[in-house]
Amino acid sequence: MDFGERAIEQAKKLHGKIEVVSKVKVRTREDLSTAYTPGVASVSTLVASNKKLAYDHTIKGNSVAIISDGSAVLGLGNIGPEGALPVMEGKALLFKEFANIDAYPIVLNTQDPDEIIAVVKAISPGFAGINLEDISAPRCFGIEEKLRDIGIPVFHDDQHGTAIVILAALKNALKVVGKSLKEVKIVIVGAGAAGIATAKILKSAKIVMLDSKGPINDKRTDLNPYKKQILKSKKYMNVYSYNAAVSNADVFIGLSGNAKLAPQEIKLMAKNPIIFALSNPTPEILPKEALGAGAAVVATGRSDYPNQINNVLAFPGVFRGALNKRAAQITEEMKLVAAETLSSLVLKPTKDQILPSPLEKGVALKIAGAIEKL
C-alpha cells in the first residue's frame, strides 16, 4: 500500500487527525457549576477587566489558528478550502506533537485578500498566534504585511518556515564543502512565497532568481513589487539566460514545484555544488542523478532520501518560543536565531546529514529556548 492509500484509509477511519479533549471532567453538579455557569461568569468578568489575563485564564495562551484559503496547497495548487482542510489538520497535529501547541485548522471560503485580513483580525482575540498556510503569492505577502501589527505573531510558514530551514541546511552544507555564505553564488528557481523569503534570508550571498519566465533582471517589465524588491539587494546578480544563472553557481535551490535540473546543468556549476531540489513530490533532480553529475551535497523535501528539508523543523519551535514570551510579532532576529540553533544541532555535518531528523521532537524546544532568550 502506498502512502496515499494509507492516508485515505486513515482519514476515513478516524474522520480526521485531531479532536478536542477536555481538561476538566464534569461528573457532579459542583463540576458543572465551576466549569460553566455560574462559576464561569467570574472568570469572564476578570478577563473582561484585563484582557491580558486571557493568556492565563483561557485557552488563548496556547492556541494558534492555522488559516488557509486553499489557493496554493502543497504541490496541488488551488484546490479550495475543503481540499486544504486535510493538510491544515495535519499541520495542527504537528503543532501538538512537536510543541504541545493547540492549533485549529480554519479554512476560508474566500480568496479575497481584504476579506481574509478582516476574518483574521476578527478572530484574533481567541488566539496567541496566527499561522498563514498555503495562500498563493503574491497575495500572501500583502496579507501578512497588513496583519503584522494585530498584537499577536503572524507567521506565513510557506515563506518563513521554509527560509529558516533552508538557511540552517545551507550553513551546514557549506561547512561540508568548505565554502562561505558570503562568497557563494546561489541560484533560486521559483519566485513564489518560499523563493522570495529564501532570497531575503540569504541576502548576504550573491543571488540569482528565476521565475516561470526566466531570470529576474533589470530588463523585465512584468515583475510584481516583491520581485522588484529582490532586485534591490546589494548582492543580487542580473543575468539574462538560464545558463548564465546556473554557470559557476555554488548552490541550486529549487522551489518552483515543476522545474527540472538536468545533470549537464550541474556540470556548469562551480566545483562541489550544493543541490537543494525541494519540489514535491518530484524533486527537480533525483539525488542519485545529482550526485552522479558531481553534486557534493543533495537535499530534497522527501523523507525517503537523506537531508530532508522539512518545515516541521522550524515552525513548532518558532511558535513555542513566541508564545512562551508572549511576543507581539515574529521578528527577523527570531528567524535567524531559529536557523542558527537548528544548524548547530548537527555537530559534525556530512554530505548525508546536514539537518536533524524531522522526527526529533527535542528540536522544537531548543529553538523555542533560543527565541525566549532574545
Describe the model.
There is one protein chain. The chain has 374 residues and is an alpha/beta fold. The chain folds into 2 domains: 3-152, 3-Layer(aba) Sandwich (Rossmann fold), CATH 3.40.50.10380; 158-374, Rossmann fold (3-Layer(aba) Sandwich), CATH 3.40.50. The chain contains 16 helices and 10 strands. Helix 12 (263-266) links the parallel strand 8 and strand 9 (274-277). The radius of gyration is 22 Å and the shape is elongated.
List the helices and strands and how they pair.
Layout (H helix, E strand, L loop, with lengths): L2 H12 L14 H7 L4 H10 L4 H4 L5 E6 L11 H20 L2 E6 L5 H11 L5 E4 L6 H9 L6 E3 H21 L7 E5 L3 H9 L4 E6 L2 E2 L9 H7 L10 H5 L4 E4 L8 H4 L7 E4 L9 H6 L4 E4 L14 H10 L7 H13 L17 H11 L2
Parallel strand pairs: 1-2, 1-3, 3-4, 5-6, 5-8, 8-9, 9-10
Antiparallel strand pairs: 6-7
Helix pairs in contact: 5-14, 6-7, 8-9, 8-15, 14-16, 15-16
- So what's the overall shape? elongated
Query: Taking Cα atoms only, what radius of gyration do you get, to the nearest Å?
Result: 22 Å
CATH architecture field of the largest domain: 3-Layer(aba) Sandwich
Q: How far apart are the first and last residues' alpha carbons, in Å?
A: 47 Å
Order of adjacent strands in the largest pleated sheet: 7-6-5-8-9-10
Features:
single chain; 374 residues; alpha/beta; Rossmann fold; 2 domains; 6-stranded mixed beta sheet; 4-stranded parallel beta sheet; 16 helices; 10 strands; elongated
